[in-house]
Structures are given as structure tokens and as C-alpha cells.
Write a structure and sequence with these properties.
- This protein starts with a strand and ends in a 15-residue tail after the last helix.
- Helix 8 runs parallel beside helix 9 and helix 19 packs parallel to helix 20.
- It is of the alpha/beta class.
- About 3% of the residues have low confidence.
- The chain is built from 21 helices and 16 strands.
- The structure holds 7-[(3-aminopropyl)amino]-1-methoxyheptane-2,2-diol and zinc ion.
Length: 667
């Protein structure tokens, strides 16, 4: 199934007709440059372009009042003076004779998108619309918005398709108060928004936007506000919030549909946001949400006023929806103090509502005050380092996001004879001769191994070579001895100059110490045997009481440990090993396989033990880009497991500060 793109140039045919400094940034060019960039990058040709339609009254009335709709209906016939007069009753918004028509098209676009996804015609999609929507309220236009496109889409999905749970992620830099008010007492819609706040000094200056506004009545816990109290936030800050707050709660909520208020004024260069996150961050934010709701994701454009970063961010988002490999995020320096304060406050405010946060006692950080950790933007983000003048948003420069090339082959497999090759996978033939390196390895590691094992290993090595040359994206091997193969692979890759292997080992089994010492391999092992070893900076043993069968404990380790570590380590290869008898359930295994493709351009090598051959199909499905099935609503993890993960996090965060969730005491 493909990716839908919904756009019509009719929505460019309204603009500000008088002088209003607050509204002059909302221009038709926002749509034309976004769509133009998609065309130029060949992305529109790869999408399924769906026609727009006008929303009908009944759809608009899902969120708005009749009197408001009637009032807006009068605007096409108004004179310029009447339009100005009409506009005065609302805040930071303007009207135009054609804006009512465009507002109906914007809502209709969002509904077209929801229809095509929920009817299974496409797997996901994006609607490029204006006017945007997330500020408009039941009876008021606000913040360039006339009708609340995404809020109407959510009500529409519930009413027409009986969708039970909807997650709305609002990564626009402004708080979508219109969405919050619409669903604040509705537990079937989880609304997440981060937004520039600066302790209520930033527009729309609402107390309702702060972290302690969590929803009302039945809806308590289903509204998450993350205030940015400083400008200049970077990729690390955004990823920290996803890993330590949004993803754990989103997986616990287990939505049937994900809607994104995709505003790109949270990107670098934007005059409204004044943040420093680069456009490629949206490739990752999109991807991290695509493993929810079996990939049913509808992104609807909100804000974004720097035409360069807006166009780049839109392309990054659509490319990920299309399934292209993700660009590695470099130099993640960890969250700043202000982010940690906000994160700590939001987690505390939601602890009583979400079991994933219950035991996450943000341990006192005295353990790490001994070792000074450089918090990027220590103090506050907008205090320039001595001598470094602050560039205004427009003058900001950033690198063009790297090209994201799809290798000719997506998934290659090495399987013993007699094991069927999954559809769409490419089987590696045994034409590979024994390379010179193998002969030495044969002596070192495989002296007593049979020829079958040596041949299998030679093919596994050629999988690695092909990934290195970007001939294939990922690989899977079913081998006689997963642990031994793992050791040989680490050894083989370590010979490369700038290689970094992220080894994720699921299940018990001994990791040879030489694998861990050189820093060229970061090992995370999730297991049940408590071998009491402390681990080290590059070896993270996660011991779960019930082992890998405990989905909640496993999920918590995935988000609060694996993801942050993987991002900060930025590996060149991900090696995922399923040890025999791990007990991990297939869906959790598939979710893990999916999430790990966030790293290393998706170059993941999966090793399975021969008697796990039933996992070949489910694993290959994920490697081929299919979404993992949902885990179901997650119960609380065992208290002692949650605390074990917290202790690990707390011990490791001095070395890996993407693991931080609290602001250290003034050390
Ligand atoms: C859903 O619309 C997208 C949006 O959130 O970006 C709208 C922002 C309105 C910002 C209003 N204040 C502008 C002050 C000018 N310096
Ligand atoms: Zn915005």
C-alpha cells in the first residue's frame, strides 16, 4: 500500500489584504514551496495523489457551533471593511472572501486522508493545507485557523469508522489549544503537544498550555502539554521527549489511528519558533510514530513560516511515510537543562495516569553530580556562549538534509537449504567464495566448525559487505549458532576503521568480554538471568524478572534505554540477535526490529538460531517495511523491573545524557 498526498492549489488563493504584523507570515507561498519541493524531489510521483473535497456542514459541526459556522458563511460576500471588522472579534487571524472556501477544502482534505487510510486504500499520508487548524475553537477563529481540521478528522474517524482510540501528536511550535479544548474530557483521544511557552510569555500566553493541564474528568491523563521554556531547542531535546514521555505513553494507550498536527515552525530558521532542530528530525519523529496503529498515520500541515526549512521538513516527512531509509542524526549532545525541567514536570504530572511512568521514580541525581556532565546549553539555551553572537532565525544556516537513497534490494536473507525464502526477500546464493579474512577467522574461531557453518558465515559476511556498499538495506540470517555468529560478526566489523556496531541481544547468553572492551560495539542485552554484573559504558545488561516475556518491562527498556542509547551512539550497523529460548513474544520482537531501523540508514542484520525458523517470516515482514502489529494496551511492568531499568538509566546517564529525564542538582 502506498502513501497518500492531498494538495490543491485552490488553497493558495487567499491572503492577507491589509496590514497586520501578526499575520503577515501566513502566506500562500507556504503551500507552493512545500508542494514544489515534493515535485522537485520526485516525491509526488511516488505518492498516491488524492483529490480534495469541500467539507459539508455536518462535518464542520462535529467540532464547531452553528452560530460560528453561520458567521463564517457570511464572509465571502463581505466588503474589505466588513472583513476587517469581522476579523477584529478573533485573535491573530485574518479573513478573506475566499478563506471560507479554502477552510472547507482544508477540512475536506483531512477527511479524504482519514478515509483513504481507514478504508485501507493507502497505508499513511499527508495533507498540505491552509488555513491551518489547531488553534480554532468551537466558536472562534484563532491563530490563522478557521476550522479545526485535525479535531474534525478525529471526530469523523470516531463517528464514521468507530475508531476507539486516537493519538493526536502536535509537533507544531504553538500549542493547539483548540484541539485540547475539544478533547480535554475525552479519554478516547490522547492529545500531545509541545510548544514554545517561556513561562506563559509566548503566544497564546495561556495557563492552559502548561504541563499540569492533563485533561478533565474521564479525560484526565489524556492531554499532554510539554512547554519549551527556552528557545534554541535542538534534535536531542525533541528526541528526549519522544523517548521518555510520548512513546511510552503512546504504546500504553495503543491507538488505532495516529493524527499529526504537522507544523514545521518547530524547525530551525522559523521566525515563530526560534528553535534549532534540523529538518531531518521530522524524518525520525514520523518514523517513531509509524510503529503505532499498524502504521495508520495521517499528517496534516499546520504552521511553518521559514519557506526553506518548511519545504525541507515536509520532504523529510513524506520520504519517511514512503518508507525511505532514515538519515542518521549526528552530534546529539543531549537535552538542555530547561528541557529536563519540563520533562521532569510533565512526567510527574502524568505519573498517576500512566503505569509506564509510575515506577519511573526519577532517582535523585546525586550519583551523577560527582561526574560533571556537560548539559548542552547549560543554563539556558538562548544565552549565547561568550563571544558567539546570536543569529536571528532568518540568518540561521543549516546543512541541506542528506540524500536518503533506497538500496536496490531491501532485505537479503541467508537461510539453510530447505527453509523457504520469504516473499520479496532476496536469498544470498552460495556463490560467495571464502574471502581471505574468512580463512584466518576459520582458524581463530571456526577451527572445529563444519563446512556448513563456515559457508553460512561467509554469506553473513557478504550481507554485511552489501550493506556497507548500500546494495541492500538490511539482512537476516538463520544460523546454527547465533551466539558464535554474533561474535564473529562483531569481530569482522570491528576490523573496519570507523565502524560502530549497536548489538542488541535478546535473551540469555554470554557476551565475550573482548566484544565489549573496544568501544566499537555498544551492547544492550535484555535477559532474565541476573548475573549481577554491573555492566559498563558499552555493555548494558537489562535483567527483567520475567525476562523477555514481560512486554511492559521490555517496552520500557526499549524506549528509555535502547532508543536513546542507539541515537547517541549513532551506529554504522545494528546487529539484532535473538538468543535461543529468549521467550520474547513475536509482536514485541517485531516492534523492536521496527524501531531499530531508526539507526544506521536502516542497516540491520538480524541473527536467528535455526530452531527459531518460525520467526523468519514475521521478522522479514518488518525488515521489508511493513508495520509491526500492536502490542495491545500495556499493563504496568513489575515494580522491581521498572526500578532496575531506572537504576541502569541513572548509572549510565553520566556517559549517555540522552538517558537523562531530570535536571541534575546544581553540581
Ligand atoms: C495552526 O496554525 C499554525 C500556527 O500554530 O503556526 C499558527 C501560529 C499563530 C501565531 C500567532 N501569533 C503570531 C505573532 C507574530 N509574531
Ligand atoms: Zn505554529
Amino acid at each position: 500500500m502506498g502513501t497518500a498526498l492531498i494538495y490543491d492549489e485552490e488553497m493558495t488563493k487567499y491572503k492577507l489584504l491589509w496590514v497586520d504584523p501578526a499575520c503577515k507570515i501566513e502566506v500562500p507561498e507556504r503551500l507552493t514551496v512545500s508542494h514544489g519541493a515534493l515535485v522537485r524531489n520526485g516525491l509526488t510521483d511516488r505518492c498516491i495523489c488524492l483529490p480534495v473535497r469541500e467539507a459539508v456542514d455536518a462535518e464542520i459541526l462535529l467540532v464547531h457551533s452553528e452560530e460560528y459556522l453561520e458567521a463564517v458563511k457570511q464572509t465571502p460576500h463581505m466588503t474589505l471593511e466588513d472583513l476587517k471588522e469581522f476579523t477584529l472579534q478573533y485573535g491573530d487571524v485574518y479573513f478573506h472572501p475566499n478563506i471560507y472556501h479554502c477552510a472547507k477544502l482544508a477540512v475536506g482534505s483531512a477527511l479524504q486522508l482519514v478515509d483513504s487510510v481507514l478504508m485501507g486504500k493507502v497505508k499513511n499520508g499527508m495533507a498540505l493545507v491552509r488555513p491551518p487548524g489547531h488553534h480554532s475553537m468551537r466558536s472562534a477563529a484563532n491563530g490563522f485557523c478557521v476550522f479545526n481540521n485535525v479535531a474534525i478528522a478525529a471526530q469523523y474517524a470516531k463517528q464514521k469508522y468507530g475508531v476507539k482510540r486516537i493519538l493526536i501528536v502536535d509537533w507544531d511550535i504553538h500549542h493547539g489549544q483548540g484541539v485540547q479544548y475539544c478533547f480535554e474530557d475525552d479519554p478516547s483521544v490522547l492529545y500531545f503537544s509541545w510548544h514554545r511557552y517561556e513561562h506563559q510569555k509566548f503566544w497564546p500566553n495561556l495557563k492552559d498550555s502548561d504541563y499540569d493541564i492533563v485533561g478533565k474528568g474521564e479525560g484526565a491523563g489524556f492531554n499532554i502539554n510539554v512547554p519549551w521554556n527556552k528557545v534554541g531547542m535542538e534534535n536531542s531535546d525533541y528526541l528526549s521527549v519522544f523517548c521518555h514521555l510520548l512513546l511510552p505513553i503512546a504504546y500504553e494507550f495503543c491507538p488505532d489511528l495516529v493524527l499529526v498536527c504537522a507544523g514545521f515552525d518547530s524547525a530551525i530558521g522559523d521566525p515563530e519558533g526560534e528553535m534549532c532542530a534540523t529538518p531531518d528530525i521530522f524524518a525520525h519523529l514520523t518514523y517513531l510514530l509509524m510503529n503505532l496503529a499498524e502504521g495508520k498515520l495521517c499528517a496534516v500541515l499546520e504552521g511553518g513560516y521559514n519557506l526553506t526549512s518548511l519545504a525541507q521538513s515536509v520532504c523529510q516527512t513524506v520520504q519517511t511515510l514512503l518508507g525511505d531509509p532514515l538519515p542518521p542524526l549526528t552530534n546529539l549532545t543531549g537535552p538542555c537543562r530547561s528541557t529536563l525541567e519540563s520533562l521532569q514536570c510533565v512526567r510527574a504530572a502524568h505519573r498517576q495516569h500512566w503505569s509506564c511512568l509510575r515506577h519511573a521514580v526519577d532517582l535523585p541525581t546525586f550519583e551523577i553530580s560527582t561526574k560533571r556532565i556537560k548539559l548542552s546549553g547549560e543554563g539556558n539555551k538562548d544565552e549565547a556562549e561568550v563571544g558567539e553572537e546570536q543569529k536571528s532565525p532568518e540568518e540561521k544556516i543549516w546543512p541541506e538534509p542528506p540524500k536518503r537513497i533506497c538500496p536496490p534490494v531491501c532485505s537479503a536473507v541467508v537461510l539453510p537449504d530447505g527453509v523457504v525464502c520469504p516473499d520479496a526477500c532476496e536469498r544470498l546464493s552460495s556463490s560467495e567464495d571464502l574471502g581471505p579474512h574468512l580463512l584466518t577467522l576459520k582458524n581463530d574461531f571456526l577451527k572445529d566448525a563444519d563446512d556448513g557453518a563456515v559457508t553460512a558465515l561467509s554469506r553473513v559476511f557478504s550481507l554485511i559487505d552489501k550493506m556497507k556498499n548500500n546494495e541492500i538495506r538490511n539482512g537476516l540470517a538463520l544460523v546454527g549458532d547465533a551466539a558464535m555468529t554474533m561474535t564473529c560478526v562483531v569481530q569482522y566489523v570491528a576490523a573496519e576503521v570507523d565502524s560502530r556496531v549497536f548489538l542488541v541481544c535478546v535473551g540469555n547468553g554470554n557476551i565475550p568480554s573482548h566484544v565489549i572492551e573496544d568501544g566499537k560495539t555498544l551492547v544492550v542485552q535484555i535477559k532474565d538471568e541476573d548475573t549481577e554484573e554491573q555492566g559498563s559504558k558499552y555493555y548494558v545488561p537489562v535483567c527483567l524478572k520475567k525476562g523477555c516475556t514481560d512486554t511492559s518491562g521490555f517496552a520500557q527498556a526499549m524506549f528509555s534505554l535502547l532508543l536513546p542509547l542507539g541515537y547517541q551512539y549513532n551506529p554504522s550497523l545494528v546487529l539484532l540477535v535473538r538468543m535461543p529460548g529468549s521467550g520474547v513474544c513475536d509482536i514485541m520482537w517485531q516492534q523492536l526490529t521496527g524501531l531499530l531501523q531508526s539507526f544506521a540508514h536502516g542497516h540491520t542484520l538480524v541473527l536467528l538460531q535455526e530452531d527459531d525458523k518460525a520467526c523468519v517470516g514475521p521478522t522479514a515482514s518488518i525488515l521489508l517495511g511493513n508495520p509491526a502489529p500492536p502490542l495491545g494496551q500495556l499493563p504496568a511492568s513489575l515494580k522491581e523491573d521498572a526500578e532496575a531499568v531506572e537504576r541502569l538509566r541513572s548509572r549510565l546517564q553520566a556517559d549517555w545524557n540522552l538517558l537523562l529525564t531530570t535536571a541534575p542538582e546544581n553540581g
